[in-house]
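Recap from last week: sequence in, structure out.
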Amino acid sequence: MKTILIIGGSKGIGKAILNNHLKDCKVICLSRTEPEIEHPNLEYHKIDILSDSLPEIELIDTLIYCPGSILLKPFHRLTLENFRSDFEINVIGAIKAIQTYLPALKKGDNPSILLFSSVAAKLGMPFHASIAASKSAVEGIVKSIGAELAPSIRINAIAPSLTQTELSASLLKNEEAIERMKERHPLKKILQPEEVAALASFLTSDKALSISGQTFELDGGIVSFKL
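Predicted structure tokens:
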């Protein structure tokens, strides 16, 4: 049974990934809020990734870092603190987790790391400067660490479009807003967390042993197509 460490596994995409792995894996969840599920394979630690010390874990097969942010403001209204805050949660938290648990990952079975970027790192959109900056840094980390840790540890990222989670609730607040967002995507749909979890499960599985250093756009075609 593999050991999966999910940071931020109590809500949204992290919750969907957690649910995907509970049946067949030991899942260790570090998050500020407790998952709304009990299972013999689940171990939970109440942690703020930016301020708390992380628990010792002897062996990890997969590390998945899910915390993120959605801060949309015109550039002239973004403060330096806004940029710092987004960078802290998206980049510094991921670095802290990887550095802390690298020894445990090195003991794992075909170990891998999965991070999260955003379509904003590839597609220029108004009001996304802060999130685009931090997620672009995530993609750079994937490339650099992927080269450094090869061939022993793989690392990839998923760059989802807007996903129907608690984090995006303010943007998908009613049917009109949902339909407007659907129309922006060539596939005319809003991404569901279970779809992201399915790709996460593949990328961290032994079926993806030849994939590392990549960022996968899961975006309803919005980056690739202009219709």
